[in-house]
Design a protein that fits this description.
Length: about 350
């Protein structure tokens, strides 16, 4: 009976005391990482199970309160093999913390963007499918739909067997399924992965923004590099654009082989590339639901040729994008003559916009 009651307790987040967390973490002796939100420490439950404790900077950053409620209110309501498990939390006048299952191999970005740590292609393919399954659960199977808003390799965590789990629900939001869109007060996500509707005014914000972000992650899995080459002299060296251009020419296989993918994995890589092109369509309505993405990645049927994405960037004379302030104070739209400048300045603009929204909040 005692074992049964303990199992039942694990079905929902447990409220721990600060004293318990000090004990679990041996007085926070092993730090796993840190960021603007606070720090993460390694710990163990009395039964020996390893945990990760995220201690939030409550007094320093008031957004920590919003992050705390978002994580407990979303991931704390769910359980899926491809979502990081939230065991519990601590909240009192002195501290706020979140207690997660420990993920042995950290985050996916550590392996995609490193020359010393790599993962074989077959495992990367499994990680992509597992991540898609987790998102499909959030969007289509939960009692209330959960929108993550910050899908990127850094938020895809890997256990000791490199099994993927989506983590970091600090920006997530619950919404009723009958709502066609979500009202937000500002930009959410990470520049480079966020959907264009966060800057375009002619599309609502829906769960399809996660689909776009997932497509950008697929491009990085295929290329095993960041989509934009850091330090490149070519401002148009953007991998998703290169994939589309080669797809148009019927040379998608050459792209995958150039990325170091072996001939035996070429078909899966080409399929993943086509799925990525579908996921990053400009219009949210043009992107497939995550359940369809899972089936396509698994090899279910032929993939319909995707329409041209990135029209909001490539189209000559496109006026749907409102002029944005650039780093030098001027403004521009996505006309042909400003395409090069767009690629050069998109990331700092998005970062600047994100900082401005955070400051105004």
């Amino acid at each position: 009976m005692e074992n049964f009651l303990q199992e039942m307790a694990r079905e929902k987040p447990v409220r721990f005391t600060a004293q318990q967390l000090y004990s679990f973490t041996s007085n926070y002796s092993t730090r796993l990482g840190s960021g603007g939100f606070g720090a993460v420490y390694k710990g163990r439950f009395p039964n020996g199970e390893r945990i990760a404790v995220k201690v939030l900077k409550w007094s320093v950053d008031k957004r920590a309160e919003e992050q705390f409620m978002a994580e407990v209110g979303t991931i704390g309501r769910t359980y899926h093999v491809n979502l990081v498990r939230l065991y519990g939390f601590c909240h009192d006048q002195y501290m706020s913390a979140l207690v997660y299952e420990y993920m042995e191999n950290g985050s996916l970005d550590k392996y995609l963007f490193s020359e010393t740590q790599t993962i074989e292609w077959e495992k990367l393919h499994e990680i992509a499918i597992g991540t898609a399954r987790g998102l499909a659960y959030l969007h289509e199977e939960c009692q209330q739909r959960i929108i993550h808003y910050d899908i990127k390799p850094g938020n895809i965590l890997l256990d000791e067997n490199f099994f993927p789990r989506v983590g970091d629900f600090g920006l997530a939001k619950l919404c009723n399924r009958d709502n066609t869109h979500v009202t937000l007060t500002g930009y959410r996500g990470t520049p480079g992965y966020s959907a264009p509707e966060f800057l375009l005014k002619n599309h609502p914000i829906t769960h399809k923004c996660d689909v776009y972000s997932f497509g950008m992650v697929l491009f990085e899995i295929i290329g095993r590099r960041k989509n934009a080459s850091v330090g490149s002299t070519d401002s148009l060296d953007w991998f998703p654009k290169h994939v589309w251009e080669e797809y148009e020419k019927g040379e998608l296989g050459a792209v995958t082989l150039a990325c170091g993918i072996e001939e035996k994995d070429k078909e899966k890589a080409e399929r993943m590339s086509k799925v990525a092109l579908w996921c990053v369509q400009d219009s949210p309505e043009g992107r497939p639901p995550m359940s369809a993405v899972v089936k396509m990645l698994e090899g279910g049927g032929e993939i319909v040729p995707p329409p041209k994405p990135f029209q909001y960037l490539f189209s000559v004379g496109m006026t749907a994008l409102n002029p944005l302030e650039t780093s030098d104070g001027s403004s521009y739209t996505t006309s042909e003559e400003s395409q090069s400048r767009w690629y050069k300045e998109t990331t700092p603009i998005m970062a600047k916009y994100e900082i401005q929204m955070a400051s105004s909040a």
